[in-house]
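Posting for a labmate who doesn't have an account.
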Amino acid sequence: MITLSPSKKNARQVANTEPFTFICAVYNTEPYLDRLFESIFYEQSYPTDKIYVIAINDGSQDESLAKLEQWRDRFPNNMTIRTQENSGQGAARNLGM
């Protein structure tokens, strides 16, 4: 895992932006979650304090929920996790809305 800190330079560049929310349907994607959240929180120009993630664990059978919880612990003000029985991507996204 890459260990980076959110860029303060980026926050200055985009100081007056609107908040942005990602809704992520998650089902057995534990191997890819670090890359997803590194991209969201570290590798773009949007200020971290304007980013919010709603992650829906759609009944994953792997360690996806544990990985989501690790990221929520790192960004507690920027992330919510919802969990449901496996119902498919559409239902997971609807729960996020």
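Reply:
Got it, the structure tokens are right above this. The chain has a mean pLDDT of 88.
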